[in-house]
C-alpha cells in the first residue's frame, strides 16, 4: 500500500489543514477564543514565514490553507496548536478543557494536512472553507460569517486578524516541489523493490 500524502512535509505545496478541539467542545462560539486563535495564527504566520490563503474558525474546529516557506507543515501546525492552546487556556473558563496532572488539553491529538496539487483542488478547498459556516447553518451568506477569510479573500472590508495573502507562492516553490516529487518517486520505487 502506498504511503499517504496526508500530514507530509512537502515544501512548495499549499496545504489544507484541519484541527479539531478536544471532544469537539464549541469553544469558538466565544469571540475571545476566536480572537486569541486568530492572533496566534497571524503571529506565527510572520514568525515562521507562511502564506495564509484561506481560513475559517468554526465552533469546534478550524480549516486553513497555508504555504509554510520551509514546507514543514507538521511542525508549523504543531506550533500553531501549541501557541493557541496557551492563549486559549489563559482566557478560558475552568470547565472548558480537561486538565491532566500538569496541563490542559485543548486540541485533539492529531490534525489533518493535505497537500493541494491542482487548481481544481485548491479552489475546491477554498470554496469548502468559505461555505462551511453556510453549510452548518450559522449564517445565510458566506460573507456574513465573522471568523472566515471570505471578505479578505474577495477584497471586501475585513478585520486585520482575518487578512490573507494575495500572493500564495514563494519564489522557489517550483524547485522545492520538483525536489519533493523526486524524493516521493524514489521512496515509492524503493517500496516496490522490497
Description:
A hairpin with a 3-residue loop joins β2 and β3. The protein has one domain: Transposase IS200-like (Alpha-Beta Plaits, 2-Layer Sandwich). It is of the alpha+beta class and 194 residues long. It is 40% helix and 20% strand. The strands form two sheets. It has a four-stranded antiparallel beta sheet, sandwiched between helices. A two-stranded antiparallel sheet has the order 4-5. The chain contains five helices and six strands.
Helix content: 40-55%
Radius of gyration: 17 Å
The largest pleated sheet is described as:
4 strands, antiparallel
CATH H-level superfamily title: Transposase IS200-like
Count of runs of 4 or more consecutive helical residues: 5
CATH architecture: 2-Layer Sandwich
Would you tell me which CATH topology applies? Alpha-Beta Plaits
Poorly predicted runs of 5 or more residues = none
Summary, kept brief:
It is built from five helices and six strands. It has 194 residues and is an alpha+beta fold. Helix 1 packs antiparallel against helix 2.
Based on the model shown, name its key terms.
globular, 40% helix, alpha+beta, 194 residues, 5 helices, Alpha-Beta Plaits, four-stranded antiparallel sheet
Question: Helices and strands in order, then pairings?
Answer:
Elements: E1 14-21, H1 31-47, E2 50-57, E3 61-68, H2 73-91, E4 98-99, E5 104-105, E6 107-116, H3 119-135, H4 150-153, H5 173-193
Antiparallel strand pairs: 1-3, 1-6, 2-3, 4-5
Amino acid at each position: 500500500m502506498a504511503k499517504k500524502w496526508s500530514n507530509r512535509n512537502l515544501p512548495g505545496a499549499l496545504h489544507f489543514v484541519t484541527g479539531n478541539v478536544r471532544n469537539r467542545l464549541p469553544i469558538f462560539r466565544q469571540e475571545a477564543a476566536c480572537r486569541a486563535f486568530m492572533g496566534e495564527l497571524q503571529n506565527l504566520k510572520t514568525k515562521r514565514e507562511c502564506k495564509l490563503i484561506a481560513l475559517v474558525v468554526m465552533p469546534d474546529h478550524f480549516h486553513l490553507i497555508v504555504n509554510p516557506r520551509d514546507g514543514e507543515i507538521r511542525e508549523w501546525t504543531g506550533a500553531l496548536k501549541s501557541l493557541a492552546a496557551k492563549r486559549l487556556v489563559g482566557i478560558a473558563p475552568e470547565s472548558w478543557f480537561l486538565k491532566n496532572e500538569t496541563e490542559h488539553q485543548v486540541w485533539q491529538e492529531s490534525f489533518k494536512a493535505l497537500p493541494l496539487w491542482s487548481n481544481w483542488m485548491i479552489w475546491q478547498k477554498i470554496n469548502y472553507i468559505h461555505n462551511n459556516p453556510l453549510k452548518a447553518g450559522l449564517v445565510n451568506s458566506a460573507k456574513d460569517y465573522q471568523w472566515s477569510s471570505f471578505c479578505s479573500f474577495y477584497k471586501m472590508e475585513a478585520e486585520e486578524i482575518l487578512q490573507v495573502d494575495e500572493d500564495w507562492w514563494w519564489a522557489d516553490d517550483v524547485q522545492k516541489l520538483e525536489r519533493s516529487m523526486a524524493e516521493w518517486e524514489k521512496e515509492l520505487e524503493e517500496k516496490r523493490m522490497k
